[in-house]
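Progress report, Aim 2. The chain analyzed during this reporting quarter is listed below.
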Amino acid sequence: MVKNKVKNFVLPFSICFVIAMALYPDSKLNPENYSTKGLDLDYNIKEDLAINSRMNNFENEHSVFSLYLGKSFEGFKEALAFKESRGDYFTINTLGYLGKYQFGSETLKTIGIYSPNSFLYNPELQEKAFVANAERNKWILRNDIKRFEGKYISGFKVTESGILAAAHLAGPGSVKKFLRSYGGQNFSDAYGSSVKHYMKKFSGYDTSIVKPNKSAKARI
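Predicted C-alpha cells for the chain:
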C-alpha cells in the first residue's frame, strides 16, 4: 500500500517537471535539486504491523465499541445472553420465556413491562429491561453481596457478577437461599441450570456500572 502511494506521488511530479522544462528551457531549474536519488522509496511494511495499524485506527475512530469485550459489563451481558438464547432477541423457549435474555412475564411486570409481545419485538427495550432487572436485583441482594463477595462457597469464589447472573436465572430469593445455606440450597430450573452453575460461570465480570435501584423500570 505504501509502495503504491509513493508511486502515485512520484509519477505526477515527474510529469510536471518534464512539462516545466519544455515550457521554460532557459530557466534555471536544476534537475539535481529534484532528484530522488538515495531515498529509500521502495519498501513494504510487514503485514502484521499493517494489520495492527489498521486495527488501532479502527479502535481510535470507534472508541465506544471494541471487538474485545472481555470482563466488561458488555462482556457480561453478551456472555449471559449467549447462554440464555444464543443472543436471539426474537426467540421464545418451551416455557414461554422471551427474547435475548429470556425474561418471564412476571419478571417483566416488576420492571414496568406489561406487553410481552411488544417486548419481544423491541431489542432496545430488551436491553433496557436487562439493566433495570440487574439494578433491582442488586438492590435486593446488596447486603448479601457485601457479606459474601470474595468468599469461597462450594469450591469457587463468589463475585458480584456471579450473584447477579444467578439472580437473573432464578430470582434474588433463590440466590439468598444458596448463599445463606453456603451452597446447601441450590435451585435448578427446568433445563438443569443451577444457581451454583451461573454463579461460577459468570464470575469476575465488572458489574460496578449497575447501581442498586429498588424501583428500577425499563423505559425507552
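Residues 39-66 have pLDDT under 50 and may be disordered. Residues 2-61 form one domain. These observations will guide the mutagenesis work planned for the next reporting period.
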